[in-house]
Amino acid sequence: MNPGIRVLRRVGSWVAAAVALLLIINLGNRILEFQRDTRYFQRPFEVSVAMGETKLTRTFGVAVVSVRGAGAITDPTGGVPHGTNGIWIIVTLRATALDGPREIGHYSLRDARDRVFWASDRVKQGIHGGRTLQPGVWIEGEVAFEVPRDVATGKLTVLLAEHRFDTRVDSMIAVELDGVTTSAVDTWASDRTATLAATTVIE
Amino acid sequence: MSAPQPPYRPAAWQAPPPAYPPRLGRPPHQLHGAPTDHTQPLPTHAPQPPGYGAAPAGYPPSPRPAERARPGWWRRNWWGLLLVVPLFVATIAPDLGDAYDRWFPTGPTERVSGANGQWVSFGGGRLRLVSLQRAVALRTHSGRPVTLPATVQVWQATLEIDAGRDAPLEGCTLFLEDARGRTFSANPNELSDVDVDRVYGCSRPYGGPESGPFTIVAAFVASSAPSAVRVTLASELPRYAWLTAPD
Amino acid sequence: MSSTYGGQGGDGVYHVGPYGGLRDWLSLHRVVAGLVALAAVATIPFGGLNKADAGRYGGLARVEVGQAYDAGPWRVTVTGGRLLKDQPPLRAKKKTNRWVIVLATVEVTADETRNDTLDILRISGAEKLAGDEPDTIMLRSDYSLLPALHPGLPEQLIFGWEQDATAAVPASIDVIIWGKTLRMNSLTESEEWLDHGERAVLTVPVQDRRNA
């Protein structure tokens, strides 16, 4: 073979390798650009559970027992009724820890439009906000959420996780609520005397 | 142009190559020039200088590359493959210490314990479990009897602590531990309205002795029978004290 | 052009080097003037020749009292201003302080509950305030303090700033609506509400109700 051609071939193979490398890096960058954001990739692992069904996560166990609503609610310890421009959704749930003292830090409601409503900070909540669960000791309590009335037109899901804000790649219980319909919401809205139940030890 | 020509094929495609004259050790076209084979008729053009590489016209075509004796892929790349090992180590080694610090010492994994009811040195002081008893007939702060489900037991642990005023041990966290290793925290919400002692870490209680050893009583709820009291201290992790009651 | 550096020297020979003419022409005055002119020209791409802004908030959107403004995660409608004495449920950190109050309706238009209500409003034109941030934010309905705001639920809020009793009584104040932008955080590579800054301004008359 002509030595010039041989040198050309050798150089050519290096160039081809470099080009291939650049293409791969470029392709990787393109994939990164097209990816949805980190929050999506690090989203919690949702475990869908029906109402009434008990589910154990890595650190706690929980069951959503029932749901009700009201136009105004009063703390378990008394005080003034808290009205709302929307509707109060009150979820009754049972919970326990599995291996050691734990809190369920994250309580939120997600509507069909993917809007997320945190548990209300306007009322003194019994089970949300500082309640420590002990292993094997089941408690029952209520959590109140304040939402616009139009959430009743689609499905409404309770989301529960151990950490309030940092839910990245953690397990999250998702319980779709039954019975939150437009007519139910209309009925609930007229109830302005509801009181949040105190948290009790049941088992 | 008259007779149809066969389609063009590079010489390397033509198989099998004709046999070389037996006295030629290797194909004449290979590296470092072609020795002239005088048995062949002279090429029509001027001979090329040695070292030019290409076979003169009239020489048999090149054999296909696959037929040359080439070393295998592993043999050709062994040094590169070998390099992968130290490169891999170099990639993860700088983070190993950090990963260890982040994950290993964060949990209580090293138990420090003594004989039942005996002193255990921990966190700049020493402490022991004086008694671990189930509490019954509890009352609320307003004097009403406490009703808890039968499966929920209230336990009270009495600890004696011997530590200086500023010993790290003051900031301890107390847990009740059952036979399965599950832990229950002191001052549980379940007893918030119940008339039992509350503890503030392992700090000296109000109204207790100003110096020397002192006693604290921690209350717990548990769903099973306890086997020990676990004492943790952030600065001591992964070590933790494991106190058992006297026999 | 005559100088001691170029031109015909005393020996009758021209001493003109390659830069002789330029060196001749340069003087301290001319260098300074040239640099100033260059600096002036350099500001042109950054708006150096633009008409000067009309006051501090000339670059911001102007809105009116009662007009809704979309500032990113929240839609804000400022409805009025008040001057109040310290009275429950307000509680001034300094007993003699009074309160400059802004009433506004805020609806979260982001898709998740927000607890950064302190970031929504700032005021200007009132003297001797305790700080830039509001000293209190309450729901008008039940005086819930620093309430989280939920998407799709407009709330009437009371924003309060403590003002020293010796300050002049403001007849009106400028209320600045701050906003945020949902964009990719280049550090965490996740979408976040960032770039907290001034978005719109309005002048709000302050009703003195200290004796009401």
UniProtKB/TrEMBL annotation, chain A:
Transmembrane portions of the chain: 12-32
Superkingdom per UniProt: Bacteria
Keywords carried by this UniProt record: Membrane, Transmembrane, Transmembrane helix
Protein's recorded name: DUF4352 domain-containing protein
Automatic annotation (TrEMBL), chain B:
Annotated region (Disordered), positions in chain: 1-67
Name of the protein: Uncharacterized protein
Lineage: Bacteria, Bacillati, Actinomycetota, Actinomycetes, Micromonosporales
Domain of life: Bacteria
Biological source species: Luedemannella helvata
Ranges annotated as biased composition (Pro residues): 1-25
From TrEMBL, chain C:
Superkingdom in the source lineage: Bacteria
Membrane-spanning intervals of the chain: 28-49
Keywords: Membrane, Transmembrane, Transmembrane helix
Identification of the protein by name: Uncharacterized protein
Organism this protein belongs to: Luedemannella helvata
Upper lineage: Bacteria, Bacillati, Actinomycetota, Actinomycetes, Micromonosporales
